[in-house]
Amino acid sequence: MRLTWARPEDLLAHELVQSAAEGRDVADVRARWVAAGGDPVPPAGGAGPHPAPPELRSLARALLDELAALPAPSAPDEPDGWDALAARLAPPPDLPRTGRDRALGAWTGRAAGCLLGKPVEKIPREGIEEILRATGRWPLDRYFTAVGLPAEVAARWPWNRRSAATSLEENIAGMPEDDDLNYPILALTLLERHGRDFGTDDVGLLWLDTLPAGRVFTAERAAYRNLLDARPVPETATHHNPFREWIGALIRADVYGWVSPGDVRTAARLAWTDARLSHTRDGIHGAMWAAALAAAAMVCDTVDEVLDAADTVVPPGSGLAHAVRSGREAAAGPDVRDGLDRLHAEFGHLHWVHVLNNAAVIAYALARGGGEFGPSVSIAVTAGWDTDSAAATVGGVVGALRGAEGIGERWTAPLAGRIATSLPGGEQSIADLAARTTALAAGREEP
């Protein structure tokens, strides 16, 4: 069995990178791993080509524990507790807390953006461009197609295996199942069951009750394993979890903003409570920022207003703050290619599922797209990192701003108003999800 995001030998390679980024001295551990025959290069797809023999796998487990025990420099600008973290944030903006109902546009935009990016997830930027040029669709302005794609290009850049059968223009029949939609649906259930005072343990128990283990990835897969191992929060986020500053928590956060229109601080707190099950530091900050984007998009008029409002929940000295600032600054460049070149030059060393490169792309796509749905999600996808996740977040923001009717029939018609899911209850109506979101927003306690 080729199990991704879980084999100790693969986790160790990623942990060497993550621990070094946190300031730990990993040289000795790395040297011992290489001397024993281990590969220190992290696999891009979640698992290396060959499983390690028992002795090497046992060593990987031991070295993971050694890395966890190494001292790391303190990060006083990025405290773990909510109260200490909130004290370091900028004052929240004075935004209206009510307005027209934008939930339908938000859900529709998130689904459409995710769907656009699904077939090319894991394909790098240059491969996406080659596919689009070969099929006469460069620059990207509609869903991908395999029609007319030369065999040699298809072989060089194969579609995402799971998504190719459901996410190309010629075979789309509603929004297919995706973790980027499973998590927002799950967040609705969480809030309906527990209200806004839910705890991180409530998130974990809901995962175990309803979320198939095979449909969680990276940090969420590690946290799921830690839950089953009866490890407490926040150890669920740190034990043998080198993905703790990747994008997983960010993709879970939109609903916390949609039910808190205009209240970016509350949205960030809800996202923080959820994120700490599986993430730390910038992994959590990314979730807070995404929730604030979603909250602001429910009441603001422009993407610049949304971005400004969301900036107030990002710790000023964090890596996430730098990534968002870089994305916004790149939007002032002469064209999209120049902007993406700048982001890849700065963040290209990171894994394609990391939070920082993808947050920079999200900020860039929103700022450069100027509130137009198609250009915004297309930029997020052609950037070539976590294509479906970045475009989903961008699509949710612009969809809320534009409304479902303002997204465009080209993008909305293939969705057929429904979202498939691997959660209990099966396929969901987008209109029903929006109605549930609106009900939760209407029932919130005013500050």
Note down, in words, how this protein is organized:
This protein has 2 domains: 8-69, no CATH class; 82-115 and 176-442, Orthogonal Bundle (ADP-ribosylglycohydrolase fold). Helices cover 55% and strands 1% of the residues. The protein has 447 residues and is mainly α. The longest helix has 17 residues, at 281-297. Helix 5 (103-117) runs antiparallel to helix 20 (387-402). A hairpin with an 8-residue loop joins strand 1 (418-419) and strand 2. The chain has helices at residues 8-21, 27-35, 54-69, 82-87, 103-117, 125-134, 151-156, 179-194, 200-210, 218-228, 235-238, 254-258, 264-275, 281-297, 303-311, 319-330, 336-347, 355-369, 373-382, 387-402, 404-407, 409-412, 430-442, and strands at 418-419, 428-429. It has a two-stranded antiparallel sheet. The termini are far apart. It holds the Pfam family ADP_ribosyl_GH. Mg(2+) binds at residues 386, 388-389. GO terms for molecular function: hydrolase activity; metal ion binding.
The CATH topology of the largest domain turns out to be ADP-ribosylglycohydrolase fold
CATH architecture annotation name of the largest domain: Orthogonal Bundle
- Overall structural domain count: 2
Distance between the termini: 51 Å
Uncertain parts: none
What series of H and E elements makes up the topology? HHHHHHHHHHHHHHHHHHHHHHEEH
Report strand %: under 5%
Beta strand count? 2
- CATH H-tier superfamily of the largest domain: ADP-ribosylation/Crystallin J1
Q: What is the tally of helical segments?
A: 23
Summarize the structure.
With 447 residues, this protein is mainly alpha-helical.
